[in-house]
């Protein structure tokens, strides 16, 4: 699996990070293929990080045209209208990313991610969906799980100054360091479908509220046919109604999901650049771990909120009910 | 070129919606934007953290940023310092970072300084012009210096550090929180001379020997003191004899010379050390190693003479390398004794054959391939002799070069955290200030752990002016020892001034006349009790650094004896209550250090005098978990307290 040695150029360039994760991990990284869909601030950060890390290839999917809003928090897009007019976000970001590390193959894939066949995903080792709809996230995750090859699946969503990362590594074997020894471990990840359908009542009280709030937002966007960021304070009543219904269905009180948090998520549709750097950084670290098979992965949600400053891992699966 | 202004994006959108609903925009949004827009920020460091930080500051709407960095760009930076390209190697980091960020935010104001932050131009008045200072440094010395200037200028400081996957961000506001030095930071580790010269037990000891003794002796300044021939048995042959070994006659065959050195340091010296039974009573005996037992009689026959290799005399010295000549390609490969010996001889030969002019002036440089090869080989042979596990060139280079392992992601995360704290500071949101720790493994589910800052340490000699106590032999120790080991090294003063009562014992400065300088130089060589104003038991010294605007008092206590192993410097500075490093800092972030400083490269080999210690290089890092994190049930925030200190230390607000 580890094949040829790293080239002299690679060894020199990656020296400092090889000292972190080792040459074997670096070799695996240089052979990995990452699919990224949905590029805004956080995902731009993520892409920068994995390109610097030296993955084999990054395939970008985002057909939205560059506009003023896209420029916010996305340092991959130079603010020159003449340069980006008529181009998609993926195309512009592709050029910038290539610059960071000429050894990484960065390319653009056009079209709708959810329309892709199962076989399409087989080309990749990692799939990352940024700001995706509930339907897309479910569909792609299912396809990844159908393949005999294990494709690591991640979703990321950042609003205002908080963010959510979801990880599905299916059946995952990895090594981790315990004291001075290397220990072999195995984890079993729930699918995206399962993870977002877990009944709320048995979930421990101190679980991050963002988990519940994001589920409400997911339903809202699906019902109203909205994309990430296409909402405002005017939608608050609708959102609160959805929250009420979800809480009732799950037999939990409405205080389970703070209204203030929901309000923040629908008004703060623009990402806060520091939060992008943080969530994008954590996501990249996770992908690097998964590709290298080294280090304990996030299992299975990560939440960051600049308001309390915490970055927490939450494990949410049907194991609560069993 | 048409472009857009982004600084008000968030605010505009907010205002737009509110106007639809006829509501005023949220106070905190407005407040935040105006705090950011009005801010003048100083960044110190344009490296790993600096690049990420400058980018995030620009994206967040900051538009008046000054950035200081004395370094130039190297290839090994490019894996994470993403504002730089290969074509920038050799150029100023501060300048290139500025240019790169202006490309995606053309209308912001960035002023870059390619200079050392310790330069006198960056005085208190310079610091006073900023609303907040953000550090992205990699050494303790500069951090302490900036800390003091921020205190003197009364400007808040946001500190940070990263090593591998670990990182932390801390906030320091004068009078409100601890300053950076309220908790002692460990200075780079040093080892007793005897461990290095006679009784190594770890590989790092062998590296220090190879780098600071052997390499220095062979290729460095001949006038430097060198402990290489220090032997336990002082009744051994005269030093004149051993001096001749290291001197090479002009016509002496290089390979012969190399083997002679090899035999001397790995054979003869070891045998001489073995003759002292006492040393080895409870220790594993080293075995002498001679070249004839390891290498074929003549290497020239086997590998072709160095004169025949493709490199010519005019070659750039950085490309000369022993490894390819020996068919060794992989720096991660572990070499055996024979291979190490071959590299030793070959590297030595190459120095004399291709880099003769440099001999006598060289210092070890981790980017000097041949030097790294030589030191690796020498350290490994010594390790073999003492039964210590050998290491690859890659590992040896990291130890010898104090290389800090680093990745882009941790720096990006830390940069985000720095900006968040900076905004709180600008809004004077004191309740919200947090120290944040980036952990490799979750602690109570947290990968990012915020902790409330502590109040200033009332015994901190930097921000609270508490006197220190120095135990020293006032009859034997010289003023020079005090200046080097205490004032400069421990207290971190660059341009010190030392007074005893009204008597000025020592100072540095450009404006001193020759008589004063001669006077001070004379004082340096005197023992404390012999100074014009004798410093004895009970004396109180005042030590100042005018640039840092730091002044401390030292109470001197005479003490006759010091333990050579435990107190090798022959003096002990104490007296301030070391705040126990009980918040998450100590355990969570450091690898081989016990307190906050995560990114710590050694300040380089320190060769002082007499009973000096050889400055060591950071050993291999071990990652440590956070320990003992307490948490109250309903408390949202993690409180980390050592029960012993609950009464003493109070949280901010």
Q: Could you explain how this protein is built, in words?
A:
- The complex is a heterodimer of chains A (322) and B (653).
- Chain A is α/β, with parallel strands linked by helices.
- In chain A, 43% of the residues lie in helices and 19% in strands.
- Chain A has helices at residues 8-13, 15-30, 41-53, 68-71, 81-84, 89-100, 118-121, 134-146, 192-197, 209-224, 236-249, 259-267, 273-292, and strands spanning 33-37, 57-61, 105-108, 126-130, 152-159, 162-168, 171-178, 181-188, 301-305, 310-314.
- Chain A has an 8-stranded mixed beta sheet with strand order 3-2-1-4-5-6-9-10, sandwiched between helices.
- In chain A, a hairpin with a 4-residue loop joins strand 9 (301-305) and strand 10 (310-314).
- In chain A, helix 3 packs across helix 13 (273-292).
- Chain B has 653 residues and is α/β, with parallel strands linked by helices.
- In chain B, helix 14 packs across helix 15 (393-400).
- The longest helix of chain B has 21 residues, at 254-274.
- Chain B starts with 8 loop residues before the first helix and ends in a 38-residue tail after the last strand.
- Mean pLDDT of chain B is 81; it is low at 1-25, 231-236, 304-314 and 577-653.
What descriptive keywords fit this protein?
heterodimer, A: 322 residues, alpha/beta, 8-stranded mixed sheet, two-stranded antiparallel ribbon, 13 helices, B: 653 residues, 19 helices
Give a short account of the largest sheet of chain B. Answer: 8 strands, mixed
Question: How far is it from the N-terminal to the C-terminal residue of chain B, by CA?
Answer: 50 Å
Structural class of chain B: alpha/beta
Rg result of chain A: 20 Å
List the uncertain runs of chain A.
none
